[in-house]
Amino acid sequence: MTKSRSNPDWWIILSTIMLLGIGIVMVFSASAVLAYREVGDWYFYVKRQLLFAILGMAALYVTMSIDYWVWKQWAKLALTISFALLIVVLIPGVGLTRGGATSWLGVGAFSIQPSEFTKLGMIIFLAKFLSERQNKITYFTKGLLPPLGIVAAAFALIMLQPDLGTGTVLVGTSILMIYVSGMRFKHLIGLGLVGVAGFAGLIAAAPYRMKRIWAFLDPWSDPLGSGYQLIQSLYAIGPGGLIGLGLGMSRQKHLYVPEPQTDFIFAILAEELGFIGGATVLVLFLILLWRGLRVAITAPDLFGSFLAVGIIGMIGIQVIINIGVVIGMFPVTGITLPLLSYGGSSLTLTLTAIGILLNISRYSR
User: Fold this and answer.
1) Whether residue 158 has pLDDT greater than 80
2) 238-257: b or e for each residue (b if 16 or more CB lie within 10 Å)?
3) Which of 160, 197, 319, 340 is the most buried (most CB within 10 A)?
4) Preceding peptide of 162 cis, ω within 30°
5) How many CB atoms neighbour CB 105 within 10 A?
6) Has residue 94 got a pLDDT over 90?
7) Residue-wise pLDDT tens digits, 104-140
8) pLDDT in tens, 229-246
9) Helix (H) or strand (E) holding 112
C-alpha cells in the first residue's frame, strides 16, 4: 500500500509538547510535599515522570514513523495480548493492588497497568473491524453485536479489578467509534438505556460507589469521609481566582487534596495558576482535539479515520471526566488527566497513541 507522505500536523505536536511540559512542572509542584513525606525526596515523582515522558516521546517518534496501516495486521494480536494481561493481573499473587484495585503488573514501584494498554488495543481492533464491516453495522446481530460483545468482555475483566473509571473510558470510546461508523440511532438509544441500567447496578452493588454518588450530590453530608476529596478540590480551585496564588504556592497540596499529582492535579494547577492557567490547559486540549478531528475527517481510508476517532475520543473523554470530577460535575471516578497527571502507563500510552495520530496526519488529504 503506497501513499504520499507529508509533514505531520504541527498543531498536534506543539499542543502535545506544551501540555507535557506543563504536566511535568505541575507534577513536581503538586507532589513535592507528598514525596518528601513518603520517601524523603522532593523530586521522587517528577524524576519518574521525566523518565516516563522520555520513554513516551520515544514511543511517539516511533509510532509517528510507522505507517499507520501496519497496525491493521496486528490488531487481533494486540487485542489478544491485552485480554491475556487483563486475565494475568487477576491471578492472586501476581497482580499488584493499589487504592483498592488490583490493576498493575510489575515489581514494586516499576509496574504497568494493562487496562491502559487495552484501551489502545481495543481502538486498533475496532478500527480494523469497523472499516471492514461498515456495510453491516446497521444490522444488530451481524454488525453491531460482535464488537459490543468484545467490548463487554474487556469491560467485565476491568471491573473485576475493579476499575470503573478506565472501564468507562473504554466503553465510551468504543461506542463513539461504533456510532461514527454508521450505527443506527435507535440502537444507540437502546444501548444508552441498557448502559444506564448497568451502571446503576454496578453502583448499587458496591457500597463505596454509592457513597461517592451521595458525596457528589451533597459532599458536606460527610465532609471527612466520602465528600472529603471533592470539598478539598473545591477549596483548591476557589482561592486561585484569575491569576492564581503563584507556582508552587498551593496550600491544598500540603496533604489536604488526595492524589494531588494524579487525579486532582488540575485542582492544584487552578489554585496556583488561576483561571488563566486552567483556561490555557483547556485551550491546548481543544487544539489537540480539533486537529485530531480534522485528521479523522481527512484520513485517506476508513481504517485511518476510525483509528483517529478512537484516539481523540479516548483523550477527550478522559479530559471531560477528570476535569468534571475536579470541579464537582461528576462523582469521583479515579481517572487521570492525559499528559498532565503522574503515571507511567497512562502517559506512555497517550503519547504512543498521539504518535499514531500524527502518522495518520502525514497521509491526510
Assistant:
1) yes
2) ebbeeebbeeeebebbeeeb
3) 340
4) yes
5) 17
6) no
7) 887 656 678 888 899 999 999 999 999 988 878 878 7
8) 889 999 999 999 999 999
9) strand 110-112
Give long-range contacts, CB 8 A cutoff, 24+ apart: 236-239: 236/264, 236/267, 236/268, 236/270, 236/271, 237/267, 237/270, 237/271, 237/326, 237/327, 239/271
The C-alpha cell that represents 17 in the structure block = 509538547
110 - beta bridge partners? 107
The neighbouring-strand residues paired with 97 are 102
Per-residue pLDDT tens for 163-220?
888 999 999 999 999 999 888 888 778 888 887 787 777 777 667 767 777 777 778 8
Residue bearing the bigger pLDDT, 194 or 154: 154
Alpha helices in the chain (DSSP H): 10-39, 44-65, 70-73, 75-88, 114-132, 145-159, 164-180, 185-205, 207-217, 228-237, 265-298, 302-326, 344-361
pLDDT tens per residue, range 20-29: 999 999 999 9
State the alpha helices, DSSP H only, in 40-140.
44-65, 70-73, 75-88, 114-132
- Rounded to two decimals, what is the model's pTM? 0.92
CA pair distance 340, 263, nearest whole angstrom: 10
Q: Which residues contact 94 (CB under 8 A, 6 or more apart)?
A: 88, 105
Please report where in the chains the cell 472501564 appears, as a residue.
167
- pLDDT on residue 113: 86
Count other Cβ atoms within 10 Å, centred on residue 315.
Answer: 22
Cell 461508523 sits on residue:
181
Q: pLDDT tens digit string along 249-307?
A: 999 999 899 889 999 999 999 999 999 999 999 999 999 999 999 999 999 999 999 99
Overall size of the chain counted in residues: 365
296 vs 302: CA distance, rounded Å: 9
